[in-house]
Amino acid sequence: MDIRTIILALGFGNLVFGMVLIVLQESQERSERNPFWIAAKCLQGAGWLLLAARGTVIDLLSYTLGNFCLLAGFSYECWAIFQIANRPVASAMRITCLIYLLAGLALSTPLPPSKRLAITSLLASPLLAIAARKMLQSASKTSPLQTFMAWSIALLALIACFRGVLALIATEEFALFSPNTIQFVTFAVVFYIMLANGFGMLVLSKEKSDRRLREALEEQKAILDTLPTGICIIKNRVIVSCNPAMEAMFLFPPGTLPGQSARCLYENDKLFERAGQTIYDDIAASGRFEGEILHRRSNGEQFWAKQHGRTIVLGDRPKGYTVFSVTDIGVQKQQQELLARQKEEVEATLARIKRLEGLISICMYCKKIRTEQDAWEQLEKYITAHSDARFSHGICPDCYSRSLLGRGEATPWPPAPTTR
C-alpha cells in the first residue's frame, strides 16, 4: 500500500466519522452536542483528500488549502477536547490559531517540498501537544478512555515533531509521497489516531450522556426523597414505586410499599373500588384527577388526603402507569369541620337575635308576646327561647308596696334586717 492510498483512506475515514457524529448529535439535546468534533472530522477529511490530489491540482489547493483544512481540523479537535474538559474556547483564541496556520502555510508554499513538509509537521505539533495536555488534565475526572486518547494524541504530536526535524535535516528527497520509514510510521500512527479518536469520541459522547442521565436521576431521587408530599407510581392498581414520604404517611416500613396492591391504602373493598372508579374515570375523561380521597394508615387510622394523578409513559412501554401525589389533609379537614360547626352555631345565634329585632307584639295587660304561630307566650319564655338570656325572679319596691304593704302583710321597704 502506497502513501497516496493511505491518505485517501484517511480522507474518506474522517468524512465517514464526521457524518456519523452529525447523525449521533442530532438525537442529543443542544447542550450535549460538541460541534467542534464534527467540524474537525469534516475538515480533516477534506484536507486529506486535497493532499491526495498532490500533483494533479495546483499547489495552492493541494498544499496550502489541503494542509490548512487538515491543521484546522486538528485545531477543532483540540477545541473539542477543551469542551470535553469543560474549558471554554474563546473566539479570539480560535481566530488567532487559524491565522497562525494560514500565515505559516502561505509563507511556506513557495519553498521546496521537504521544507514545506517540515513546516507543516512543526505547525501541527504544538496544537496536538496542547490538546493532549488538556485532555490529560481532565482525564482523572472522567474515564480511562480519555486518558488513552490523550496519550495517543501526545504520541502523534511527538512523531509530527520528529518528522518535521527529519525533513529539515534530510539530505535526500523528503516529500509527501516519499516511501521512507518515517512516512509509513507517521501515516500509520495518524490512521490509528483517526480510528482511536473517532470511536473514542463516540464512546465519550455516550459516557457523557450516561453521566448526565445518572446525575439527573440522582437529582430527581434526592428531590423526591426530601419532598414532604407522598409520590407513587401505580400500574393496574399495584404500587410500582414510591418515595419515603408516601411510606411515612401511611406508616409503612421503608421499602415495603412497592409491589403491594393499592387496596392496602383503603379501609375496605367498597372504598377501594369507589375511589378507583372515581379516579380513573376522571383520568380517562380529562387526562388527570384532582380530589379528596379517604384513606387508611397501616395502623387502621383513617384520614383524608388530597390527590393529584395523571397517566404517564415510561420509556417505550405502553400507557398504564399513573403517577399520584398524595397530601395528608386530615388536620385541615378537622379544622374545616370545626369551622363549619362554629359557623352553624354563629348563624343560629344570629337567627335568634334577629327574632328579637324589629316589631314585637306584646299584650298591654299581661305582657305576653305573640309568636310567629299566633300563640301567646310569657315574656320570659319567649326571650329565653330566642336568646341566651336567663331569668331570675324578684320583686321591685313599687310592687312590694302595692301588693304586700297595702294588705298589711309586710314591713316598709326595704325590709328591716332580721336579727336573732
Description:
- It is built from twelve helices and seven strands.
- The chain is 60% helix and 10% strand.
- With 420 residues, it is an alpha+beta fold.
- The N and C termini lie far apart (147 Å).
- The strands form two sheets. The protein has a five-stranded antiparallel beta sheet, sandwiched between helices. It has a two-stranded antiparallel sheet with strand order 6-7.
- It has helices at residues 3-26, 35-52, 59-84, 91-108, 113-139, 144-169, 181-226, 244-249, 269-286, 330-355, 379-386, 397-404, and strands at 230-235, 238-242, 288-296, 302-312, 321-328, 369-370, 376-377.
- Strand 4 and strand 5 (321-328) form a beta hairpin.
- The chain is rod-shaped and about 155 Å long.
- Helix 2 (35-52) packs antiparallel against helix 3 and helix 3 packs antiparallel against helix 4 (91-108).
Rounded average pLDDT: 79
Q: How can the largest sheet be summarized?
A: 5 strands, antiparallel
Binned strand content: 5-15%
Shape: rod-shaped
For the biggest β-sheet, the strand order reads 2-1-5-4-3
Helix content: 55-70%
The number of E-state strands comes to 7
Q: What's the N-to-C terminus distance?
A: 147 Å
